[in-house]
């Protein structure tokens, strides 16, 4: 089962959910935001990520790792 399957009815993931999906801590997620590699969306006071943006970011990381190897 895909992690996103559990959230298939939702368009966005919260910071803790996104960190869990990427298997990184929230601090690392915020570092990616501050570096400009990941763009969050605000809904009121809540910071969320569009699923498409997370997949694009993650796929970009995989591409960077392949080039570095």
What does this structure look like?
This protein is of the alpha+beta class. The protein is 51% helix and 16% strand. The protein has helices at 15-22, 26-34, 51-68; strands spanning 12-14, 41-43, 46-50. A 3-stranded antiparallel sheet has the order 1-3-2. The chain is globular. It starts with 11 loop residues before the first strand and ends with a helix. The mean pLDDT is 86.
Shape assignment: globular
Beta strand %:
15-25%
Flag low-confidence runs.
none
The beta-strand count equals 3
By secondary-structure content and strand pairing, the structural class works out as alpha+beta
**What Rg, in angstroms, do the CA atoms define?**
12 Å
* Residue-averaged pLDDT: 86
Distance between the termini: 29 Å
Strand order of the largest sheet: 1-3-2
**Counting H and I runs of at least 4 residues, what is the number of helices?**
3
